[in-house]
């Protein structure tokens, strides 16, 4: 077992408690006194303070737990390698309660109270959209790991960037060619009838049509619905593929009822793992997914041909072969999203080194350094794969995984190209003033 | 308690919500464990629970109540505690409390690493409440006021206080304070924020301490300090009783709930207090259901956060209390009417005591998973309470086993434990209620008849309780 897998909390100096103890030896904790830890790593400089806007409570908490673990592992790695410009990273966690107003308040606290260099780590769209204006007003870089299209849409501001995770528009577009060529051209969309579902509908329909495919039916389902049998007859008989993006607690019921409706026959299925992130695919009710395909941002299950850097990443965070914690096989990670924390922290490091970041006076230079980034090679810093950053829309583009459920595990069967997901930018942040 | 900064952000939030609705969402509504529960045959449990409570009532109607009442009166002397440790224990508790407040202000900003929110919301509000149901009124010793107050008494402060609390106030002040507490816990945007919580508990500690000085400790904790009132009520279900005797305590063991048989009738404000405690926990479950979110126009798959639902949830909290109190008083009034009872207020004051096992069952069922996971975070936080890199107990880097409540197996076990608690709590309540009614009317026929409306209410609340734990919900 990798000892790193044990760590789940980052202490004041941005390294884990275990490091502190390892560094000062057994029993030396007795010597620890206020102020001791911060300087225990014999760093000559003040740390770089990163405010981690974390979904500790509220509906984002299951994601927050793994964002925290990934952040801890990445910070440990960076600090062990000498930090950024010789300075260690210090993570300051504030809980945003997965609430937009609270998120905005937290950004303000980071700047005014905690004097951080930048704010980082937000996942849920509404918190990002609620916090970004505050980050803009306070002129503090805001590195989000959110997957939404809001950053790329050009509607945020110069300080808000998403360099570590691809956005939903690119994800949806990138899977269309493979679906058309491998599963079939007549697609029925089954989606929850609100913004998230509408995004998939609006991005996917043109993308599949561009591949010579056709959306033969759309089946919007009210968000509060918990039984789906009355909607399933709306799926036309000549459908080749059902593209499903149901989310929420009724997902398992949806899959079960889909299985009961179609039995051993029926169209092929293609889904987004967002529906079942952190849910065991061997759970009762999900049997019908066997053989079906999913988009995955990063593979949850260890793959046979996994490159070494991906193994290193999984080991550093403490993931077992099923994508669960090495300490707790039932605690399944949010694998398709949390890699974004790791990659974002490495991009922050690279950007700070590029602009020789010294302190808050260099915040604009930091954003410009990130905007200037283009290609990012796959490797230890980018374990999810190769990426291209578009500085104009502050958004990164990358390869996506298409995985098939085989014996209750997801096996990657195809990796899309970066070009599959790219689209014309709708804005240009670099033309905005600071 | 909302900071000006937060208030300023409300318009930002509106923008945020609108923007999300305009199609930039990455919805990550988690399938959560409720998804596994939705696949369980929970409707059978709802039916079974209703039948179990109804059958218990019918059995009591058919059986003579005297043997049960006699059985409930039996108790056994366990041992004598040859000292009164209240001052010492409470003083230690005060020091612990002071350290927690320090941690709240100066420790980690992470509510899952700072011991203050973990102790207040998980160990005290959940854990200690459950312990009171089992072991009795531990708060009489553990409260952080008695020790410091004793010190002041030794220095000359009058033990009986300098003024008297007006009798007419009854439990109304505690009722109001509990409502504030429930609002802070359930509705306020950031009750787990260490700084905000440290400020809140400090203000409350000072307020209570001042009250103890002015009106005397006994008077203040009898009817004003809401935790003392609540935990004393909950401890009535415990099989253990501690009787102070000179400078010692005699510990008795009886049947669970037997103390309720001897309890004095509560005034209406006391009845309302207990019903508020139950309704607030019920609302904690209810406000997360798809049903409630639909009513207030919130899409449960993109819950925007607490700040957006402050007004409707505040109203909902009050409405849940009004609904429960209305049904309870109606059931008592109707029951008394059926048997020609003269004093329905006194009947309500006695018949509210059997609600205690239901309140305890709700507490257990609703906070079980929080206790199992956040309890681990609490243990970890004790090793490094001030966030200085300490590892006092070797638990600082403990990997919190969140998986203990995750997955279909855990969902099955937890659901069954919750259902057992809810059904068991109501069966006990209906039984105790019957015995209370018999004590009130001294007639088996009258007791049975007067309890028909109450039994119907309890059957309804059993089904409601099980529904709350099995219906689609967020989080």
Automatic annotation (TrEMBL), chain A:
Pfam families: Peripla_BP_6. Residues 47-406 form the Leucine-binding protein domain. PANTHER family: LEUCINE-SPECIFIC-BINDING PROTEIN, PERIPLASMIC BINDING PROTEIN OF ABC TRANSPORTER FOR NATURAL AMINO ACIDS. Keywords: Amino-acid transport, Signal, Transport. The keyword Transport applies. It comes from the Bacteria. Gene3D superfamilies: 3.40.50.2300. Belongs to the leucine-binding protein family. The keyword Signal applies. This is Branched-chain amino acid ABC transporter substrate-binding protein. GO terms for biological process: amino acid transport. Coiled coil: none annotated.
Automatic annotation (TrEMBL), chain B:
It comes from the Bacteria. Keywords: Membrane, Transmembrane, Transmembrane helix. The chain crosses the membrane at residues 45-64, 85-106, 118-142, 163-184, 196-217, 271-295, 315-335, 347-365, 413-436, 448-469. This is Fenitrothion hydrolase.
